[in-house]
Amino acid sequence: MLSSIWKPSEQLRGSSQRALIYFVCGNPGLIGFYVDFLDALRNLLNTSQGTTAYDIYGRNLLGFCDDEHEPFGPDNTPWDVHAEVDGMYEDVAARRVSVEDGTGDDKPYDFVILMGHSIGAYICVEMFHRHMQDPSRAQRLNLRHGFLLFPTIASLALSRSGVRFNYMRSLPTMETHIATYAKGILSLFSQGTLQWVIENVMGFSPYTASVTAEWLKSRDGVLQALHMGKSELDTIFEDKWEDELWEVSASASATDKGPALSRFFMFYGREDHWVANHVRDEFIERRRRAGEKGGGTSITVDEGNIPHAFCTKELTSWMIARRVHEWVEEIDKASQW
To answer: pLDDT tier at 254 (50, 70, 90 boundaries)?
Structure first.
């Protein structure tokens, strides 16, 4: 099972800065789901003419790959949302140009863009929040922007899928044994059968269908995903962050040399089963009011029908990669003022 994706920039010559786009998965937290998306983004970035070279790195969330941890048990429980935030924060803080390109110098990136999908977006925002509260934890880490894709950052239990999941948890024995029941049902099918159904009935791409089937038949993957899902519903209520977090990037604030630039760029689905429409709209309105006072968050709501699980199909992976590339170009343009 793929554990990480590393896609360095091919255009280092002539670049005045080197930045890292650090990707955080959704749930299930397997980087393999995002191969097509990150491939497309890398290809688009290679066409850019800016002065910043962007490397791309993403890895599995903790607990989703059997090879990366000891079997779960009473003394080794799955990771929850808070543990994932800690783990990803430690990992991104350890990223160095030298670690990736094999040089001997311990050189930090000029700046880092955190990019997250679904619960990965929440993890990114929380990493920003913790870093702003105590930057001494990672003094050489320069978090500049966040790209939040289909973000599940507020009142998750009010979404359609959140309501269904909580109802299922309320049924007798389900809270404790839901993973056991799921594993029992999955044991009736071979990995090949699951892959065929996922590809031909659910419409996943061949590669993401294989990733899904391997995860469903893994030792601990389903348990980690369900544990994480319960933690998400028990953690993500009304957005708790201060307006300061959402204001313009400190390194790209309004000056006489150029326009203000958002710290966060967000892309919402038009109809997202993990995001209640009224929760999304209320959040957007709060950010709009804050923007009138001098803050700013770039928010786009899809006008089409790109699904929450955009990464399971090649076409929608490319569509979201193109949106992200537009954000990068906007950042590069602002830096040239």
So the answer is: very low
Cβ–Cβ < 8 Å for 235, 188: no
Question: What number of other Cβ atoms are within 10 A of residue 18's Cβ?
Answer: 20
Rounded CA-CA distance 115/201 in Å is 30
Contact by Cβ (8 Å): 78, 63: yes
- 8 A C-beta contact, residue 148 and residue 125: yes
| Residue 144 DSSP code | E
User: Of 161, 118, 146, which Cα lies nearest the Cα of 299?
Assistant: 146
Q: What is the pLDDT of residue 293?
A: 55
Cβ atoms of 300 and 22 closer than 8 Å: no
C-alpha torsion sign, points 87, 90, 92, 98? negative
Is 47 in a helix, a strand, or coil? coil
pLDDT of residue 260: 72
Instruction: Please give the structure tokens belonging to residue 188.
Output: 């009736």
Other C-beta atoms within 10 Å of 43: how many? 14
CB count, 10 Å around CB of 139? Answer: 9
Neighbouring CB atoms inside 10 A of 293's CB total: 9
Q: Which position has the higher pLDDT, 113 or 243? A: 113
Single out the residue of 121, 119, 109, 123 nearest to residue 147, CA to CA: 121
User: What is the pTM (predicted TM-score) of this model?
Assistant: 0.94
Q: Does pLDDT of 1 surpass 60?
A: yes
Nearest Cα neighbor of 323 from 148, 164, 178 is 148
Beta strands in the chain (DSSP E): 4-7, 17-24, 52-59, 111-117, 143-149, 264-268, 298-301
Pairing mode of beta strands 143-149, 52-59: unpaired
SS3 292: helix
